[in-house]
Design a protein that fits this description.
6-stranded mixed beta sheet, 370 residues, Ubiquitin-like (UB roll), alpha/beta, single chain, Rossmann fold, 19% strand
Length: 370
């Protein structure tokens, strides 16, 4: 899973990045809109530790998340002097990186800090959300209009069904964006999705809005989420509140000190744990496990994907030679203590290609050599 962090200048994007990635990337005015910070972090999952002795594995391999901290937009929201024909404020190289991510995390500033003035002079979270949305819409429109122009020329010479279908889909996309709606608001047929998958449209990606607050605003967290509830009514959009500066400080502590500090601050989960849980729910992701003498491993899959698709994630040869999958819930396997006991108790199921993998499944893929 790869998540891109976006937002306006001085909203705390890199602070959020540091809190999630447990890193020490420098923050401040030095940041260029062309600079991208990247980090890959393991997804904490204590189920792996419990599965380790079952497989008598030497090590555990958790699932991972890639974070991309891109530059900020600086366009003022609804500035009457802005023409949509202007060049985008997000650098092209940053946009190209963001198009490769699976979801966007939009950091919105709600904290006051006189030492870090807002680019528009005062804090207004909803204004900033709309400003960044405009930027992302503009970036997608540039791609669509360029491709439509190219397709018009191609269709004059050869009216192939593929080009005609792509033109139809992109025309619908353009109208949606012109109407001020993100592409994630559309329901797209599977065949049409295949036609446009390579474009990586930014407004089609699931959106997690992170309201960045100060430590003094922690008691208001629930009310702040409610004040942004209108955005959660939009397709594939979720809102969470994060005290990024505080969470970044916690991320720099060792595990024991961090736990003590979190208790003192009334935090039940770390920023990373809350972010991962919310992201998985937003994107419809589940975790399944595999294991053997070498390793116990966690994998990330989309809800509704099948056993053969899970096999392909592990290795393409497993997908091509797939015969069947032995499936068991991780907790059932731990309670049984071994595959032998699981089989004798009848809790180990044998499933075919179309079996939809469930959260917490442990899979043993049986495949013919290819």
């Amino acid at each position: 899973m790869k998540i891109g962090i976006v937002g306006r200048p001085h909203v705390g994007k890199t602070t959020v990045f540091n809190a999630l990635a447990q890193s020490n990337v420098e923050i401040g005015d030095y940041r260029s809109k062309k600079q991208v910070n990247l980090s890959t972090i393991p997804v904490p999952d204590d189920r792996l530790e419990k599965l380790l002795p079952i497989f008598q594995a030497k090590t555990i391999v958790p699932a991972t998340i890639d974070y991309v901290d891109g530059g900020g937009t600086s366009r003022s929201a609804f500035n009457p002097n802005i023409d949509v024909s202007d060049s985008p404020e997000i650098d092209a190289s940053v946009l190209a990186e963001l198009r490769t991510v699976d979801a966007l995390a939009h950091v919105v500033r709600l904290f006051e800090d006189e030492t870090v003035p807002h680019v528009d002079g005062h804090v207004d979270g909803k204004r900033d959300i709309d400003a960044v949305n405009i930027e992302l819409v503009f970036a997608d429109l540039q791609i669509i209009e360029g491709r439509l122009s190219r397709l018009e020329k191609l269709l004059k010479n050869q009216k192939t069904p593929e080009y005609q279908n792509e033109f139809r889909v992109l025309e619908t996309f353009k109208q949606t964006l012109d109407d001020g709606m993100p592409l994630r608001s559309l329901t797209i047929a599977e065949n049409d999705e295949k036609l446009i998958r390579g474009y990586g449209f930014l407004t089609q990606k699931p959106l997690l809005i992170i309201c960045n607050i100060s430590e003094t605003q922690l008691q208001e967290a629930d009310q702040l989420v409610e004040s942004f509830a209108e955005y959660e009514e939009q397709a594939q959009t979720t809102v969470i509140v994060l005290a990024a500066k505080l969470e970044m400080e916690i991320a720099q502590l060792d595990a024991e000190d961090a736990e003590i500090f979190m208790v003192e601050m009334g935090l039940n989960q770390s920023a990373l744990d809350r972010f991962i849980k919310t992201s998985y729910n937003l994107m419809g992701l589940i975790t399944f496990f595999t294991g053997g003498p070498k390793e116990a491993r966690a994998w990330t899959l989309r809800q509704g994907q099948t056993a053969v698709e899970a096999a392909g994630l592990i290795h393409t040869d497993f997908e091509r030679g797939f015969v069947r999958a032995e499936c068991i819930n991780w907790n059932d396997l731990v309670n049984c203590g071994s595959y032998t006991q699981a089989r004798s108790k009848g809790v180990l199921k044998v499933e075919g290609k179309t079996y939809q993998v469930k959260e917490g499944d442990v899979l043993n893929i049986l495949a013919n050599p290819t």
